[in-house]
Amino acid sequence: MQEKIGLVGSSVEIKLLKEALEERGLKIHYWKKEEFSQNSFPDDLGLLIYELNKNERDNPSLLENLLKKKNLALLLLTEEISLEKAIDFIRRGARDLKLLNTPLELLEKAVLYLLEERRIITTEDIFLTQDPRLLKILGALEEVAKTKASVLLTGESGTGKELLAKYIHSKSPRKGGPFIAINCAALPETLLESELFGFEKGAFSGANYKKKGKIELADGGTLLLDEITEMGLNLQSKLLRVLQEGEIDRLGGYHPIKVDFRLISTTNRDIEREVQEGRFRSDLFYRINVITVKVPPLRERRGDVKLLAKYFLEKFSLSYQKKFKGFTSQAMQFLENYPFPGNVRELKNMLERAVITCLDEEIDVKHLTDPFSEASLKTEESQSESVSSVLSNTGTNFDNSFEEVKPLDEIEREAIMKALRLTKGHKARAAELLGITVRTLRNKLKEYEERGLLSEGGF
Ligand SMILES: Nc1ncnc2c1ncn2[C@@H]1O[C@H](COP(=O)(O)OP(=O)(O)OP(=O)(O)O)[C@@H](O)[C@H]1O
C-alpha cells in the first residue's frame, strides 16, 4: 500500500517533507525535477506531491498529462502563485495546492489528509519500528516473502504479529492474491473445521448451500492461522494433510481440490511445550515453522513507544478531526515507563481514548490512564496524586531506589489481579481495562494457576 506515494521536486522544503513522511514509516517514490517524466511512472501511484517550476506555474497546460489522471490525487507545491492560476489548476483536476513556505507540519497534515482520503493509510496500520532487532527481522522477512516458506510468528498478544503477516504478504509475489485470516481460538472445533475446509450442500443438517472454506479462498495468496495452537488434534491432522498434498476436501465433497497458498501461523503460547506435552503434533510443527520469528514485547523495545505514540496520535487526530500540540512531558515520561502488558494494541487503544477524551492542547497523563480505573475515579483535586499513584502502581520509578523496581511479570500479575478485583472477577471488563483480549487474560490466569500463583480465595 505504502509505495503508492510519489514526490517530485528539488527544493529544501520537498526534501524536509520527504524526511518527515519517511520518519512516519511511509515509503515514497522520489524523483528530482529533472528525473521525472509525466509519461512514465508507476501505474499504482495514489498520491503525487509535485513541486511546480516557474514555467509550469504560469502554464497549467504543461501538466495536462498528470492532471487528467483520474486515479491520482495530485498535490501541487508552489512558490507564490496568482489566485486565478491556482483556481485553474484545481479546475483542471489538481486535488490540492499549497505554498512551499507553508509550515512543514501543515504540509504533512495536508499529505496525511489526502492519504486518509485515498485510503492509502487508514485501512491498515503500517508496521512501524525503529528497534534494531525488528528492523533486521523486517529486512530478513522481505527476503523470506519472496519464497513460499511457511512462517511462524510467536510473541505476546498485541505485539503486531498479524500486521507482520500482512507485511510479508504485501512483500510477496502473491500480494495481488487474497490475504485470508482466521482465528483458531475464536471458534468451536466443528465450526472452525467448516470455516477452514468449507462444505458441500447437504454435507450435514443445516448445510443448505455450498460454501468455500478459508483455505480454498486463500488460493493464490496467503492464509493466516492466528492462534494455531488452539486447534484440536483432529483438525491438526487434516491441516497436515493439506500441507502435504496441496489439496483439500470440502466436508461432504467427493473430489479433492488443489490449493496453493503460503501459510503464516501465529501463537502466543510456548509451542515447543505444547508439542512436548502432546497438545500439538510435532510433524505439523515442523511443517509450519520453516521460518520462526519471535516478535519482542513492546516493553523490550522502548524506542518504539515514542514513535508509535506519535503515529497513533496523528492517526486518531485525523480520524476524529482534532488538533493537538503533542504530549506533556509527564505524559511522555509515563509512556516511556509504562510496561504495556497489552503491547502495541494497548498503546493504540490508549491513544484513541486520549484523543477522544482530551479537550486540552496537549495530551496529559490523565488522558492516557483509563477513566474507569480506580485512580481516575477519584475527585479532581486528588488528580495529580492519583496520577503519581498510577505511575507507581505500574512500576514507574522516578527516584533511584533500586529496591523498588519489581520484575515486569510481577507488575503485570499485580495489574491483572487488580483489574479482576475492581471488576469483581468479570473477565471481559478486566481485559478491557487492561487493554488485552479476554483470551490473553485467560491464558495468563491459566499460567498463574499452573505456577501456583493464584490464591485460594480468588483475586
Ligand atoms: N509496529 C506497529 N506499527 C503500527 N501498528 C501496530 C504495530 N504493531 C501492532 N500494531 C497495531 O496494534 C494492533 C495489534 O496488532 P496485531 O493484531 O497485529 O497483534 P497480534 O500480535 O496479532 O495480537 P493477538 O496475538 O492478540 O492476535 C493492531 O491494530 C495493529 O495494527
UniProtKB/TrEMBL annotation:
Sample GO molecular function, one term: ATP binding
Keywords from the named record: ATP-binding, DNA-binding, Nucleotide-binding, Transcription, Transcription regulation
Signal peptide extent: none
CDD domains: AAA
Record PROSITE patterns: HTH_MERR_2, SIGMA54_INTERACT_1, SIGMA54_INTERACT_2, SIGMA54_INTERACT_3, SIGMA54_INTERACT_4
Superkingdom of this protein's organism: Bacteria
Annotated protein name in UniProt: Transcriptional regulator
HTH merR-type domain location: 429-459
Organism: Caldimicrobium thiodismutans
Record-linked InterPro entries: AAA+_ATPase, AAA_lid_NorR, Homeodomain-like_sf, HTH_Fis, MerR-type_HTH_dom, P-loop_NTPase, Sigma_54_int, Sigma_54_int_dom_ATP-bd_1
Annotated Sigma-54 factor interaction domain residues: 127-356
GO biological process, one term: regulation of DNA-templated transcription
